[in-house]
Amino acid sequence: MADLVNFTIDGRQLQAPAGTLLINAAKEAGIAIPSFCYYDGLSLQAACRMCLVEIEKTPKLQVACTMPVAEGMVVHTDSEQVRGARKGMLEFLLTNHPLDCPVCDKGGECELQDMVFRYGAAESRYLEAKLHVDEKQWSPVVFYDAPRCILCYRCVRICAEGLGVGALGIGNRGAAAEIVPNRGDHLECDECGACIDICPVGALTSGTYRYKTRPWEMEHIGTICTHCSNGCKTTMGVRNGSIIRCNNRDRSGVNGEFLCIKGRYAFDFNSNPERLTAPLVRNNGELKPVSWAIALATVAKKFSETKARNGRFGVIGSNHTTNEENYFLQKFARQVLKTSNIDHHRTGDMASLLDALHGKTGALATTADLYTTKAAIVIHADLAQEQPLLAFQLRANWRHHKAHIYAITPGPVREDNYGTGVRAEVGSEFDELEKLRERLAGEGELVILFGAAIKSDRIRQLVTFGDSLGISVKYVCLLDYSNSRGASDMGLLPDLMPGYSNVRDAGLEPGLNLDQMVTAADLDVLWVVGANPLARNTFASDRAFVVVQDLFLTETTRRADVVLPAASAYEKNGTVTNVCGDVQKLSRGPKTMGAKPDLEIFGLLAKELQAGLGPARPEAVFEEIRRSVRGYNLPFGVVETGGGAATAPLNGRVEFQAQPELIRSAGNTLFTSGTLGRYSTMLNSVLEAPGTLYHDPGLEPIIEKGSGQIEVLKHQK
Amino acid sequence: MTFSPALEERFAKLLTSYPPRRLRSAIVPMLLYAQDEIGCVSPELIEEVARRCEVTPLQVDEVIGYYSMLHRKPLGKYHVQVCTNIACQALGAEELYDHASRTLRLGNREVTEDGLISLEEVECMGACSWAPAIQINYDFHHFVTPERFDRLMESLRDGSYGKKAS
Amino acid sequence: MRYNDPSPLEVRVISQRFDIPNSVSIDTYLANDGYVAIKKVLGLTPEAIIEELKTSALRGRGGAGFPTGMKWSFVPRNTGKPTYIICNSDESEPGTCKDRLLMENDPHQLIEGMLIAGWTIKSNKGYIFIRGEYRYLIDIVDRAIAEAYERGYLGKNILGSGWDFDVYTHTGAGAYECGEESALLESLEGKRGVPRLKPPFPAVVGAFQSPTILNNCETFSAVPVIFRNGGAWYSSLGTPKNGGTRLVCISGHVNKPGVYELPMGFPIMRIIDEVCGGVRNGKKLKAVIPGGSSAPVLRAEECDIPYDFDSLAKAKSMAGSGGIVVLDEDTDIVAVALRTIKFYAHESCGWCIPCREGTTWLKKLLTRFHEGGGVPSDIDLIGELSANMLGRTFCALGDAAAMPTGGFITKFRGEFEEYLRKSRATTPVAELASV
Lengths: 717, 166, 435
Ligand SMILES: Cc1cc2nc3c(=O)[nH]c(=O)nc-3n(C[C@H](O)[C@H](O)[C@H](O)COP(=O)(O)O)c2cc1C
Ligand code: SF4
Ligand code: FES
Hints:
Chain B has helices spanning 5-15, 27-38, 43-53, 57-66, 86-90, 93-104, 146-158; strands at residues 78-83, 110-111, 117-122, 134-136, 139-141. By secondary structure, chain B is an alpha+beta fold. Chain B has 2 domains: 5-66, Arc Repressor Mutant, subunit A; 78-158, Glutaredoxin (3-Layer(aba) Sandwich). Chain C contains 17 helices and 11 strands. The longest helix of chain C has 21 residues, at 353-373. Classes of the chains: A alpha/beta, B alpha+beta, C alpha/beta.
């Protein structure tokens, strides 16, 4: 702990560690010093001059955002002089700022409005003409209105410092200065929209939201993004039952202020006109809409008949459905349908990792760990493309704590720009790891993140390597979809029960895996929930009765005999587990008429079959999971209040048959999201080719061979 | 892009003038010298300078917007800059600029149709004690009266500029 | 070349070679006491050098008049980082045209001054930042640098000292703000000329994030003279706290405008009357802008003071960059105020709100006022807006804009009121203001 210094703000005696910025010390004490350009975690600008305060024995007013507290300092934040200065700044700002608040997207959420309300300057002495520049569209999602811009440079900094993209700059000079995009008249970037979110005024607006509504007309519902495994919290703005925007309004959840393009904009699949809104049953070879009652009865009838004659079931679960749904589905399969033929599209070998880690505690890194660990190494994954939040976390850790980041990948990745990049083809990563051994061992603490190329025995080899470093090592097995981890944890596997105990321990025999089910010629019923296995395969059995729960008519849905329209993750309550094992809560926002949450569908089917599986309500199933699934005895309050609770994974052998051939990465990029992504108009409208990487030649990695020292070239302002 | 051998030599020198990994320092000089040769800062030049200085084109673009001598469109073969700042103003520079604007039929930063002459009202150019002053490209002309100005313009047009003492 | 005749009242110390034919060549320089000082200095410790500079009472000629010896003493030693010597030849302050003459006529003197600074902090690299408009000077200075290399005054193992020093020219491209030291350093690093947060000051974290001595071109040019003749000698040319001479640039309504080297403390009225032959056309003096356009204007009756940093500070103005603009009785002060603020609005880098918006507002207001659209509240508003900027901007450009603007109003309020009487506006006409 740094030395404490004593100082006085507005007559209150305070203490703070030496070096604390006055603006933060005041905030800590509940004294608000206004600011536009100061932004926690980003570099200092001292440009807006809103934070001017009076410091005794100093002739001029001083900016609190760059002034560290000092022993004996006496500060006044509310003197007449200070109030006058603030009002003066606001008056200056408003000279060229159009007062189009009534139609501005930001109206009601605007920091400038709030400041003028609080500190005055509403009456104008400005009689001159305002500068006008036309609004520009920089990408399908980013619009810029220069006159509204107050030049706080938050957008420039979040893009360069936060994301490592640096797509925004400053053009012109003086009053004509404005923010400019990196490609002349348009942006080539991650399209994450962080710039829009961070903008204190309505200068940057979102292509999907602009001029749609007023913020107070929406209901704001926090939930978890359904696109990738990182599980970012996002706040849905819902009006009249549909999502108008997503942003992480309250900066809570595992992601703080981060969201990628998918989290922020790709919610539009939800209202795609192709959404299924009525159950379909095949009649004379054609899928025809029917009532839910008929559809459910048809399925129930088929299920009981098949059961009665000991027919063969196959169940394919989802990487998108909630923990409760996954848990309920496997219970349905095993207890009611009496089958072990259950699986999901595995995007990483979680089971092998857990097995390799048996006997260790705390060896799985949480999302938060990535921000605090002293060092991290990424093996065979392009985090910025595939795991955007994890990439952001590592970068923030490097920025704020000087963490050392390594990447062993076949091609260039963004981590090269600030860490140590090593090029290696799949298969030779262990040679490269050996070369880095000494440096890694010297780090004292390490998180290893590895992609789908590292599976089964190679995971064991990796853990052996980790053990041999003699330091604390944690792991992240990179997975792809929003609840891949939950699917695995909840036992959507032919030989593993929820919590990774072997089915044999429950007196069952292992069943068919996903590929076997798809290629089996003798299945009687195939039940596919929220998955699209036929996107890459054709189904072998033509006699099987296929039941599909989905949002859209996908390749798999088209082959169905009964289609049950499912609600999306945004339309459900429940929990999901992210790639790092953080369990977070989904909350229902919009509603698509005719579709039902998968859990409700399971419950209705169970009722039809008089299965006695217990209540199919998310809360009840979550309670059962907490009681019965190893690692999921989570603090209810944390999850309930929208926090991420880390699963405490089991700590013992995992008995299962390694099937490395089933581990397949989804190959998603920042701009794709499996089948779901195909239904997001917005996602398909961005110019960036999937997989494009923005390589900043100014940030060439400096790889010092054998020096044992990592040097990074800092990205300077 | 290809430049004249002299310019290439200058570039080569520039790129070794700064401390290691500080190639970026060469941006402003490179842009200005290249502009002198090719007439303006073209999009290709931006890409080229970005490549040579190992920065993003955006980083070059930001710089261009900042400096008033860098321009994206070609100016006249002879860029006539009239200072109207206070020292020159005191000795009639505003009238001189108006005279220039009227006789050349050019507004600020405009170019004659034949591309020969462009006019700009500029800030103090460091000739205050010998005001009013103008610059034609990089040449200073001191104590400029409207009559002298006309003679200078005439010499630009008839090609005698720079050949005899002006 | 000098563009005006010398005056017998001048004390030619740093301009002593200006009139010698081919003064730019190293041979002329060597034949006239050139590179004598560096030889002496190579035998001195940094402490001794700094002491001598302090004795000389040399103060920065760039504008702020900070004691040069003290500035050099702030550079931390043995940080393990390289150090740099930066010459500020951005010379953009309206009213100032002296660095141009120093580089045009005596570039070796400047190089020698930088050499002495370099040796003092054992720097190996120096840069001369020359404004883009001075393109021809880059060639002159580059030629001088090449000569110095040839003769062993630059490069490796200078004069057998075992010490290496390189000097390069670096061009600006049109931006007054790049004269501000930290903005200059940003510009030198290939960025927009936006000032840096201070502290740290350039002495500690300067060029390329390393300790740096940054001085004005005239300041460096004075250094060789000081070490050739001694700090005490130099100091005695001026007043006790304002050592030596300075190149004063007189412009405006005088008979013989020009750049003259005068001892510090030379009275302003004598400069006008004796050095420059008085106000032109027998007119009466109205006002003097005494230290470049950033200096608040002095009324004629306030001009009876010595020309040095302290006397002008006492008169609530400043000696700044040494540019004196003399204005006669016919001068339209409103027009001068407008032209001044136009300049700052054009040159504001745009980084901070009060400067960016304040200068622009004032420019528009004064444009309207000057065009006859003034309203009574305008006069106080000009003063209040200047006050709202003063001391609150990120860098001193904001102050440089606010100080003179406020000054015009306080010193010449009557002229503004006169304008109002002629104003044709009864209500403010926003359309009048051109953007
Ligand atoms: C807006 C602004 C413009 C300046 N322009 C110049 C300039 O053109 N030349 C100069 O030498 N100093 C200029 N200065 C002063 C420099 O910041 C710096 O103080 C000076 O170069 C230091 O040198 P000195 O100590 O030798 O005076 C300027 C300062 C400000 C705030
Ligand atoms: S005062 Fe502010 S806007 Fe003006 S030049 Fe300095 S930093 Fe830039
Ligand atoms: S918050 Fe301090 S200047 Fe903007």
